[in-house]
Amino acid sequence: MTDIATAFDQTGEAGFGDYVALLKPRVMSLVVFTALAGLVVAPAAVHPFVAFSAILFIAVGGGASGALNMWWDADIDAVMRRTAKRPVPAGRVAPQEALALGLALSGFSVIMLGLAANWFAAALLAFTIFFYAVVYTMWLKRATPQNIVIGGAAGAFPPMIGWAVATGGVSLESVLMFALIFMWTPPHFWALALFMKNDYSDAGVPMLTVTHGRRATRGHVLIYTLLLAPVALAIAATSIGGPVYLAVSLVLNAAFIRGAITIHRRDEPAAEADSYAVEKRFFRFSLIYLFLHFVALMVQGGLAAYGLGGW
Question: 197 pLDDT exceeds 80?
Fold first, then answer.
């Protein structure tokens, strides 16, 4: 952290955009979207103002996690090309500022969600922040090649929190939405690791590509994609599923499995020859895959509200 602090002293004050970047807005958008989906499909009506407030505070909690992650990971972020321009490693925000902002927003978001919705949802948000900042960022990320597998739970909690805002509890449906994101995370991030090449090894992060090699990583992408499909399809049989969701999920999973098989069959010379184009397409499609699953759930829920589209 000393080098980062020195860099900050040399570059001067941060701008507003730097503090926004600390909150990882891209990750925050996924948190907001999946939490909103969990809230919308839940079988309980929520006042629009309560719903808006809850989603806002969940977003703030997600941003707090991002700030804490950037504070702790500043040393390795500075080494990796993908993250070197982040505010802390680039010296635009001091590490202690990132820490203070993360802690302040964590407490604010949890307390306000409890007051706006219910304390069970707030407790889930608090645990999510703790899991991402401490269990994943401070421990798993640098300790095991299973970092992204176990740590993926942090990104899988938002739909459960949204569901808890509406219902005050947990159900099979919310657990399956959690499982969908949890099982999706490894192939999504391992595809990224395949075309990021040496970033993780340079930073000393034991990503699967570093500890087990690219060939094994390709195999793991296929395995987890195959395990993901039945989880995604199982949601169709629950109270929030239906024929619309099932049709969308069948198409998406068929395409995702096909992509994983293609990646599994690739060798490094072929991948390097086309600049990992296949891996990059798979990574981008993984984002579409998750997005459309939750869109389908909300569409299915909207149809069900009018007595349409159910089983």
Answer: no
**14 confidence band (pLDDT: 50, 70, 90):** confident
Quote the number of domains for the chain.
Answer: 2
Q: Classify residue 14 by its DSSP letter.
A: P
169: burial class by Cβ within 10 Å (0-12, 13-18, 19+)? Answer: middle
With respect to residue 78, please indicate whether it lies within any of the assigned structural domains. yes
Q: Which of 114, 74, 112 is nearest to 95 (CA)?
A: 74
Q: Cα separations (Å) of 1 from 91, 203, 204, 247?
A: 11, 14, 16, 50
Residue 193 and residue 148 share a domain? no
Pair 38, 161: CB distance under 8 Å: yes
Q: Residue 62: inside a domain, yes or no?
A: yes
3-class DSSP state for residue 180? helix
Task: State whether 143 and 178 are in the same domain.
Answer: no
For residues 113 and 127, give the distance between their C-alpha atoms in angstroms, rounded to a whole number. Answer: 13
Give the separation between CA 3 and CA 78, rounded to whole angstroms.
10
Domain hosting 106: range is 16-168
Instruction: Mark out the alpha helices in the chain (DSSP H runs).
Output: 2-11, 16-22, 25-41, 48-72, 74-77, 95-116, 119-130, 141-143, 147-151, 153-156, 158-167, 172-195, 199-203, 208-211, 213-234, 243-265, 268-273, 277-305
CA angle 182, 63, 80 (to 5 degrees): 75
Cα dihedral 186, 190, 192, 197, rounded to 10, equals: 160
pTM above 0.90, yes or no: yes
Last residue of a domain, one of 168, 184, 218: 168
